Amino acid sequence: MSFLRAICRSKTPLPAPSIVLHDLLRIPTTTIKDSSPSSSSTPQFTNSPSFTSGISFCHFHDGRPRGPLWRGKKMIGKEALFAISGLKRYKDDEEKLEKFIKTHVSRLLKMDMIAVLVELERQDEVTLALKIFRMIQKEDWYKPDKFLYKDLIMALAKCKKMDDAMQLWETMRKEDLFPDSQTYTEVIRGFLRCGSPADAMNIYEDMKQSPDPPEELPFRILLKGLLPHPLLRNRVKQDFEEIFPDSSSYDPPEEIFGLR
């Protein structure tokens, strides 16, 4: 090893370095076993894994999803990936889409079907995700789950599919499930994006009746989104100051309201 260090530190060019290193690092393919006591002090180079155990290799993340998907440690399987690919391929052809769903998607196991739903939501394929969710509701193993509703409602609101989101909202309420603060926030945000402050206020009034303790974020989203509607904004601001007396809300200049 000292000889190797001397070679590495040397500044003089080496003739045929590849040959030299090859000869130095050449490992015999066979190991001579010697039972004499002196043999234990002589290092033997073998092909055993112990010789390379100190060498570490760098593995780079290739961008594919890793880790648990939904309440489990199951990665997206081949069947689920095939289903996702086929659904996206036939999404513009209703006849082929229904045939593919019947022959392939309907046969998926529980976790594979949920994995398909989650991945479609992640890719903003919300129309397909809604179709898969309707299939899941018909399965024997289906039980009303707030998180399934929550993820799909938020995905629909993100894509401004508010009619579908509210239909799912009503179905969730019929199954005695109640949205959490994050769901309220995203639905309110979705209506504000679509230019429907009245619908956002309806969700806000529903939120005030929720048994869960209120959080600041949906109030702040409304206070920002209702800037062009000072009367509605004042109602929300009064509630905000009563519920969160130690917090402050931003009041923009009057020019924003057109009250010069």
Describe this protein's structure:
The chain has helices at residues 2-9, 17-25, 78-89, 94-103, 110-122, 126-137, 146-158, 162-174, 181-193, 197-208, 216-225, 230-243, 254-257. By secondary structure, it is mainly alpha-helical. Helix content is 55%, strand content 0%. The longest helix is centred in the last third of the chain and has 14 residues, at 230-243. The chain is built from 13 helices and no strands.
Structural descriptors:
mainly alpha; 260 residues; 13 helices
- Which descriptor suits the 3D outline? elongated
The average pLDDT score comes to 78
N-to-C series of helices and strands: HHHHHHHHHHHHH
- Radius of gyration from the CA trace? 32 Å
Secondary structure tally, helices: 13
Structural class: mainly alpha
SSE layout and pairing:
Elements lengths: L1 H8 L7 H9 L52 H12 L4 H10 L6 H13 L3 H12 L8 H13 L3 H13 L6 H13 L3 H12 L7 H10 L4 H14 L10 H4 L3
